[in-house]
Structures are given as C-alpha cells and as structure tokens.
Amino acid sequence: MAKETAVSRALHAAPATGSAPSTNELSDLLEKGRPLVMGVLNVTPDSFSDGGRFLGPAAAIAQAQRLAAEGADILDIGAESSRPYGNAVAVPLDEERARLAPILPVVVGLGIPVSIDTMKAAVAAWALETGAAIVNDVWGLQRDPDMARIVAEHDAPVIVMHNRDAADPRIDIVADVTAFFERSLAIAARAGIPSERIVLDPGIGFGKTPEQSLTCIARLDAWRGFGLPLLVGASRKRFIHSVVPSEPAERLGGSLAAHLLAVENGAAIIRVHDAAPTVQALAVAAAIRRAR
Length: 292
Known about the structure:
single chain, alpha/beta, TIM Barrel, 8 strands, 42% helix, 12% strand
C-alpha cells in the first residue's frame, strides 16, 4: 500500500500538460535519412550487460559523454534493470528516481535527445519534466495504466516494445508481436498519442527464446505494414550466445551482424552498448550500398 501511495502522489504531482517539447526531436532525427544509433546507459547494479559499472553518477556521466562523442544520436537512460532473461528485481519508484536524479539533468545538458527507459508512468513524467525527450516503455503502454496518458499529456514520442512474462517456444512469435503492437496502438490512440510519435520495437530477447529473437530480426519486415519506425536492440543479447557461445562483453561481432541485417530489413533505430563500432559499421555498409 505504501508503494501505491507514493506512485499516486508522484503522478498527481505531475503538471496536467507538462512541458511538452515544441518539436518532435525523434522525428527530426529520423529525417536524417540514415539509421539512428541509440546509446544505452544503464544506471543499475544488475544489468545483464555491464553489471553495475555505471551506477555511480560520475561513471554514468562519463559513459554518456563517451557515447555522445562516439556518435550516438540518442541516449537511452534507465535505472531499473528489465533483465530480458528473467530474475528482474523490481525497484521502488523513489529509488529509481533517486538513481536518476544526479545524472539525468547532466545527460540532458549534453545536447543529445534523451530517452527514459522506464516501466513507471511516474518516473516517465518526472524525467520528461527534467528534460528527457522520449519515453522508452519495455511493456509497450500495457503494464502501467497511466503510461499512455503521461506520454500524451507531454506530447512525447514513445517507443512501444513487445514483451512477455515468459518465453513460449510453441507460439508464432511474429503473430504474437503483431497482436501486441495492435493492442498498444489501440491504447495509444485512445490516449491521444499521434502515430507520428510512435516507434515499434519487437523486443529482442524479451519473453522470447533465442530462436524467436533470431526470427524477429529475420522477419522484421512483417511489421513495416504499421507504417511506423522500427527499433531493434540486439546488443549483447543471449541469442548471440546460442549461435556462438560467448559472454555479454564478447558479443560485439554478433551485435554488429544482427544490427546490420536489422537495418537491411527495415530498422530505423539501433539500440547499442558499443556506439563507435556500430556507427562505423553502419557507415561502411551504407558506403558499400551506394557503390553498387
């Protein structure tokens, strides 16, 4: 009950209309005509990929500066590990916000659009008021009933990611993702979120077997019919280990291969831990395509 009260107070404290950005920064970036690179900043003690290396403010800010210098177009900051392979530990609202408080304003000050990776509407509202430009919801507006309202009131772009509580190897994953997106888009429409502010993410590794994650990348064009930008975050994910046994820090090659093929299949945004190698790989791939 105490947690619900804290969440309720935070939601009611958010201004009714927020400080909505005057322009859609994400839309402006997408008009560059090339794949965008979103750099990952995990301000958590239990991230599967970096195990808490950037939990402290100084380390987190230095990593954000590094990602920006390496060419990231967007910085995605999160303070609650979603742990795509299960065993995620829920973080109370106050703790999640406390982790972000000394870091988010500085990261926003770098001058690159910042997305807030959170499942909580209250955290999203606070982050948008603090200067974040985008909401990245790993439950696609379907977990926190207030998330769509907060996004709409702040006129913010939102990344709608597919997720499941557990993987089921028996299901048709493409059909499942499609149905999930349809539900999320219906929620967004009811809340008044314009379609031009929505990005779809099939959620590589989340509630999927390794084979299903591979299928989502291979079949990415199945969701181009929605007419919305697609984001793929395959960086360091476990499906790479299923192909070539490796630890998360050893999966750069697999990450680059997955992301290059994702772009070929229609991805407009790539979410990565390693910005510089990804920027280079995308640039070289584009130069080769132009030379055909």
